[in-house]
Design goal:
The protein contains 9 helices and 19 strands. By secondary structure, it is α+β, with helices and mostly antiparallel strands. A 6-stranded antiparallel sheet has the order 5-6-7-8-10-9, with helices on one face. A 3-stranded antiparallel sheet has the order 11-13-14. A two-stranded antiparallel sheet has the order 1-2. Helix 3 packs antiparallel against helix 5, helix 3 packs antiparallel against helix 8 and helix 7 runs antiparallel to helix 8. The termini are far apart.
């Protein structure tokens, strides 16, 4: 097989946009042409003895094995439970099934039955696949096949084989009525064949490049994610059940697919790929992702003992070259195969995103050029609001969290503290005043009744605390305002007996008051009786 080529920086694309093509837009995987379907037919179809087991889920004992000089039989009864078994193909070349499908021969055998190549005479002689049952009269296998026909015919995805029909055929030799599923024919090579075709000069299997295996994993996760969104679980992903056709990976064996809410049907899987919690907790989304990670491990290094010694674990990373070279790839497999399924990836989309990130890192290390991508969580700024968070303050500004500077008053105001650096503070007259000081030209505004009452109560409390102190008149506060001109207790010049100005807690809008040190102005004739006073505060 040709080596996997790394694409240039100009051909890179975001993971989401390139996800539909094998290689995620980062690597070019050699295409596998579709061969002539007739060349895929087996000349002598038979099931190897090492793969002959009783089909009952509660038994699974080896059957049809050689004993001494006596070869194993392909038909008979299980020596443990007495269940009949048969590994002989029921259809022969030239047989007509359902009066529509002409059998060309056997393609392969799977966990649930033989797979036949046939032509559909009702649809322009197109090539189709007939999947039969492994054992004649097996009611459990028949129920699985009928279930597969019932809901898988509605699934359509570019990476999943299509189900066309379900038919029955009378076996003249046994008189039994056998069921067959009619599927789309997918020509190409399975991942198992692609891996076995790579050999070292010494004859040992040469693992696939890690970037090529990652490309296959991303495609497989696309298909599994589609099934999960529809409420189905694949349950049996492995190197035998995925075929590369041209530049696309296809899932071909749908016999183990089940609904997520199905807790009664038998669960099918393969030792070495199946998650360890299946027997106790049943299949789940995380168990499907577990099978993908195990498949990636089988493809990328010589995984000896993955069906026994390392059936539920990974070998020491110090002894595996691909793990030493690409730590992120090892960490991804560790998370996806964690014994606690709650710590694995939550969805196929999440694992695919992480696997794409691993692929980008692998390609970057090999090519020496970074392969960045847009984050799925963070995006670029849509617009720039300003270069500063707040506008620059004009004039003097107070110290954040500190009291302003205070200056001592002049004659008549000795001992009184007055604001010196806060021109925007609000000042109020004595509680008896209900009029508001006229403000500068163009200044207007008002406060609610509740705010005025609260300010009056606060002024009264302060007046009682300062009773007996000298009155604060005009000119005694540097930069301060004069007494209220409308106050009956004042004379307009700040000489009233109780016309004291009180500092309010309420702050005025920034920039609305006069500069520090500005003299207070008397109201002009006809001026409004309500507004901001000379210190940018409501006066009353």
């Amino acid at each position: 097989m040709a080596a996997v080529s790394v694409r240039g920086a100009g051909s890179g694309a975001s993971s989401g946009a390139a996800r539909g093509r094998l290689g995620a837009g980062l690597v070019t995987v050699p295409e596998v042409p579709r061969p002539d379907p007739r060349t895929a037919v087996l000349e002598h179809p038979e099931v190897p003895e090492r793969k002959r087991f009783c089909s009952r889920t509660d038994c699974g004992a080896p059957v049809g094995r050689t004993r001494g000089d006596q070869p194993g039989t392909t038909e008979g009864f299980c020596g443990k439970c007495g269940h009949p078994y048969s590994f002989v193909p029921k259809l022969r070349p030239g047989d007509m099934v359902h009066g529509q499908y002409e059998v060309a021969g056997c393609l392969a055998h799977g966990g649930l039955g033989w797979i036949y190549l046939a032509t559909d005479h009702a649809v322009s002689g197109r090539w189709v696949v007939l999947k039969g049952l492994l054992d004649t009269g097996d009611e459990e296998a028949l129920a699985v096949a009928m279930s597969e026909r019932r809901f898988l015919a509605e699934i359509e995805h570019a990476n999943i084989v299509r189900i066309y029909n379900f038919v029955e055929h009378l076996d003249r030799a046994t008189g039994s009525l056998d069921g067959y599923i009619v599927m789309e024919y997918v020509g190409g090579k399975s991942l198992k064949e692609l891996a076995n075709d790579r050999r070292t000069p010494q004859g040992r299997r040469d693992p696939l490049p890690v970037e090529q295996a990652c490309a296959y994993g991303i495609e497989a996760l696309e298909a599994l994610g589609h099934l999960h969104r529809r409420g189905y679980l694949y349950c049996d992903f492995k190197v035998d059940n995925a075929i590369q056709q041209h530049d696309r990976l296809r899932l071909i064996d749908m016999g183990a697919v089940r609904r997520m809410d199905d807790h009664h049907s038998p669960v099918y899987g393969t030792i070495g790929y199946q998650a360890p919690e299946i027997a106790a907790l049943g299949p789940s989304v995380s168990s499907d992702l577990y099978t993908v990670a195990r498949t990636l491990a089988v493809l990328t290094f010589d995984f000896q003992g993955y069906t026994n010694v390392f059936a539920d674990s990974l070998p020491d990373p110090d002894h595996i070259e691909v793990f030493r070279s690409y730590e992120s790839f090892y960490r991804l497999l560790v998370r996806a195969t964690d014994p606690d399924r709650a710590r694995r990836f939550a969805s196929a989309e999440e694992m695919a995103e992480q696997l794409t990130g691993v692929l980008r890192e692998v390609v970057a290390l090999q090519s020496g050029e970074p392969r960045p991508a847009l984050s799925p969580l963070f995006g670029p700024e849509l617009r720039v609001v300003d270069t500063e968070l707040m506008a620059a303050a004009e004039g003097d500004s107070s110290l954040l969290g500190a009291r302003g500077r205070w200056a001592r008053g002049g004659a008549g105001g000795a001992g009184r503290r007055a604001p010196h650096s806060r021109p925007a503070a609000a000042w109020h007259c004595a509680p008896g005043c209900r009029r508001r000081r006229p403000g500068p030209a163009g200044a207007s505004g008002g406060s609610g009744r509740s705010a005025r009452r609260a300010a009056g109560r606060a002024a009264g409390r302060r007046a009682r605390r300062t009773a007996g102190r000298p009155a604060l008149g005009a000119g005694r506060v540097p930069g301060g305002p004069a007494a209220c001109a409308a106050c009956p207790s004042g004379d307009g010049d700040g000489a009233g007996r109780s016309g004291r100005w009180r500092r309010s807690r309420r702050r005025s809008p920034p920039g609305s008051g006069p500069p520090r040190g500005a003299a207070a102005t008397s109201p002009a004739p006809g001026a409004r009786t309500g507004g901001w006073c000379g210190t940018a505060a409501w006066c009353r």
